[in-house]
Amino acid sequence: MKRLLYATGLALFFITPAVHAEATDCAAAKTQADLATCTAKDAASADAALNAVYKALSGRLSSADEQRLRDAQRAWIPFRDKECAFRTQAYADGSVYSSLLETCRTDLTKARLAQLQHQLKCPEGDLSCVPQAAGAPKPATAAPAATAPAKQARTTRGHACNRPARRNPTNMSRNAFRCRRRPIHPATVRMRAA
Q1: What sequence ranges are listed for the domain Lysozyme inhibitor LprI-like N-terminal (predicted)?
Q2: If one looks up domain 2-120 in CATH, what number appears?
Q3: Which pTM value belongs to this model?
């Protein structure tokens, strides 16, 4: 009989926190235990959402871009933890520290989630996005690169500020200083020479 009472008491001891955790209303949480439970739930749900978007995005990237994303994510996790430790270090000795730390981690995780969601749902033509395998850029991107040196050659003729110094590096720095001070129009240079 003693064993039965002991087992029942022990079972109630372990079941009560689990029931309490599920029954916690996070909107009306007032005790520190309720706040800690709610912030832990929020952090876990934000982390799960981040992992889902991360997996979806990594599945759409090339292997090189997927490796870059993995490296960025591996660097971001310690950043998040250190940033939250920095933000909450003033409260490290208090009872609210764990809740503040989880809230900070949740906020930064949600911000990272928004960044990855933007990458995942990036509109075509947005240059801030990584090209994805489904919407990879067309091979026609090599043609504009071939015309770029011709444009550059045209802009280096004419005005002294646009020409690099050939033999005297001090001449180049003098021209650069003069051009930063005030722009000199080519017609003005001809008028001065006359």
Answers
A1: 27-116
A2: 1.20.1270.180
A3: 0.56
